[in-house]
Task: inverse folding
């Protein structure tokens, strides 16, 4: 492709193609990672629109970086740094926003879960930025003269970048480290049990006992390996599982989470608005493993005397 400058300050045809392709692929990256699932976060349509716009801005920053560096316009690096600072502010705003809404929910997400959601928002903007950067960089160094083939190359590189970074940043869920099954609710006097595990003793009236027995649902979560108990029994992790259960089904009355120290299991019980045990099991299985509860096994292994 022949580079022709019409005048000083006018962007060449080559750079226009590079920047537009990079911006499009970076924005597509944000759309692909904008997952609307049972967690309903971000909510639509305003939440979606805000995230797509910030993804577009990130893509624009990543796209103009290579042409700016080639033209020795190093002020672009300053704008890049300002953009990254802006994304960090987005994380802070998202954390503050979710924190202020805690009292409006059936049960709290917990600070650990909120922090994880906010970090995810920030990371996905970086995916947009790096996707755009990689797209423009490869298109430039490849030097394909045919515009159509060069754009096609950029699309391929962009898609590879998106799915590579999406795979790298994908965390584990509770279902990856634990088994989740329906629990059997029993009531003895004022005490509630799930699969024989004590949960609570607040069922002091006949009405409350009948409500739990007739409409209550419960699940039991058991770690697949003993080491996973450290994650499962973390308070923030248990609060996140309870929140997702209640968010999926609603809460008519009562919501409990209790860990069993002897068996290494965790029980969640509630009286939901929507009585659907399969949805409850799915919600618990798909709850993300929080960063603050996750442990790296190789670091936790004790060192031998020879090491």
Result:
């Amino acid at each position: 492709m022949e580079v022709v400058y019409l005048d000083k300050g006018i962007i060449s045809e080559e750079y226009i193609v590079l920047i537009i392709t990079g911006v499009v692929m970076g924005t597509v990256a944000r759309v692909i990672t904008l997952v609307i699932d049972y967690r309903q976060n971000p909510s639509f349509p305003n939440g979606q629109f805000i995230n797509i716009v910030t993804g577009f801005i990130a893509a624009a920053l990543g796209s103009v970086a290579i042409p700016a560096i080639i033209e020795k316009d190093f002020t672009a690096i300053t704008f890049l740094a300002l953009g990254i600072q802006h994304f960090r502010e987005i994380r802070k705003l998202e954390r503050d926003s979710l924190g202020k809404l805690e009292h409006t929910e059936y049960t709290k997400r917990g600070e650990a879960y909120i922090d994880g959601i906010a970090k995810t928002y920030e990371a996905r903007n970086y995916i947009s930025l790096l996707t755009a950067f990689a797209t423009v960089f490869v298109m430039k160094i490849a030097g394909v003269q045919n515009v159509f083939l060069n754009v096609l190359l950029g699309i391929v590189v962009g898609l590879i970048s998106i799915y590579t970074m999406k795979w790298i940043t994908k965390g584990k869920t509770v279902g990856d480290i634990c088994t989740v099954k329906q629990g059997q609710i029993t009531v003895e006097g004022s005490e509630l049990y799930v699969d024989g595990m004590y949960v609570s003793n607040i069922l002091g009236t006949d009405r409350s006992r009948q409500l739990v027995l007739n409409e209550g649902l419960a699940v039991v979560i058991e770690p697949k390996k003993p080491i996973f108990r450290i994650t499962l029994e973390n308070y923030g992790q248990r609060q996140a599982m309870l929140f997702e259960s209640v968010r999926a089904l609603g809460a008519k009355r009562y919501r409990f989470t209790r860990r069993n120290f002897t068996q290494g299991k965790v029980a969640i019980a509630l009286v939901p608005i929507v009585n659907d045990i399969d949805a409850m099991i799915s919600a618990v299985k798909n709850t993300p493993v929080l960063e603050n509860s996750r442990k790296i096994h190789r670091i936790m292994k004790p060192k031998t005397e020879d090491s």
